[in-house]
Write a structure and sequence with these properties.
The chain has 14 helices and no strands. It is mainly α and about 325 residues long. Helix 3 packs across helix 13, helix 4 runs parallel beside helix 6 and helix 8 runs antiparallel to helix 11.
């Protein structure tokens, strides 16, 4: 894990230097130390603003989003015992997008509801609907996945309908770009909110690592080992919905991170959740830092939505997972 933390810190520092402005890793650390009151940076005001106000909060938000989405994917795959489960596939991201769009475009809540609150309510409604649909179809993990696919399509359609019918041209362009995943508007407030929710969620999930190990053998086996199955499932599903909603409200619906990264981490450290959860979080954070760097630099000054980059990388990775699953039968 120490090596992963070092790679993450170096990745953040290198990613901040990428872009049209000429910056070095030393400049980045100097700016950070100056804002912490530890030393004089010795850089221009423009360089200071580029690092502190633009690239650093954006890169840190990318790291938090990657870590949070990967964590949610690992938790859902363990609870549902299905390698295809993640917040995007189960419709939680789509529901959060619908809730956020209702607040932004239609003004739901009359100014009382924030974007994050709207996203959380949308995620909660979507996840409840998916679980009710799966239960009505007879239960089982495969039906949960199928119900999630239906929920994803339903809430994606609702989001498109709201945008097309009620948003003006400028709102439509901004919302559609955000729905594909965008970190361009990241600020320190977004970093603080997302990091706080993620940190609390990570602690709660890690405290349930032993229970998640027990779920590997099924709900009945977990209950026989002393796990309160309904309580643990309710707590962890609520946490994952909350993390997903907050991240979607800040960065849009980003797919494939929660689906692919837990498998990569499981391949590296094994199935024990005491090792798997920290490894998944680090892998997700490092992955998203570089995805965001690619999205904003490859075709600069034009920027690619990060959801497009994660899909271009995630689809081949997902194909590899499918082939590995086939060969392991």
């Amino acid at each position: 894990m120490a090596a992963g933390l070092v790679v993450l810190v170096l990745s953040v520092a290198l990613a901040v230097t990428l872009g049209p402005a000429d910056l070095s890793v030393r400049d980045v650390y100097a700016v950070i130390l100056e804002h912490l009151g530890l030393a004089e940076a010795g850089v221009t005001r423009l360089q200071d603003a580029i690092v502190w106000q633009l690239r650093l909060p954006r890169t840190l938000l990318a790291a938090v989003c990657g870590a949070g989405l990967a964590l949610c994917g690992a938790i859902m795959q363990s609870l549902l015992r299905n390698p295809l489960a993640d917040p995007f596939v189960l419709g939680i991201s789509s529901g959060a997008s619908t809730g956020a769009v209702l607040v932004v475009v239609l003004g739901l809540g009359g100014g009382i509801l924030s974007l994050s609150t709207g996203a959380f309510l949308g995620a909660a409604v979507s996840f409840t609907l998916v679980m009710l649909l799966a239960a009505g179809a007879g239960g089982g993990t495969s039906r949960v996945i199928l119900a999630g696919v239906a929920g994803t399509q339903l809430f994606s359609a609702l989001t498109s309908f709201i945008v097309i019918s009620s948003a003006d041209a400028e709102q439509t362009r901004g919302v559609l770009f955000w729905l594909l995943g965008s970190l361009s508007g990241a600020g320190w407030d977004d970093v603080a909110l997302c990091a706080s929710v993620f940190a609390v969620g990570l602690v709660v999930c890690y405290l349930h690592a032993s229970a998640l190990d027990a779920f590997t053998f099924g709900n009945d086996a977990a209950a026989a080992l002393g796990v309160s199955v309904p309580r643990v499932r309710a707590v962890l599903f609520t946490i994952t919905a909350l993390i997903t909603a907050v991240l979607v409200s800040a960065a849009g619906a980003i797919g494939f991170v929660g689906l692919v990264l837990p498998h990569a981490a499981r391949f590296l450290v094994g199935p024990s959740h005491h090792r798997l959860l920290p490894a998944t979080v680090l892998a997700g954070a490092i992955f998203m830092v570089w995805v965001d760097a690619i999205a904003r630099t490859v075709f600069e000054p034009q920027e690619i939505p990060v959801g497009v980059v994660t899909a271009l990388i995630g689809v081949p990775a997902f194909a590899v997972i499918l082939f590995r699953m086939r060969s392991s039968r």
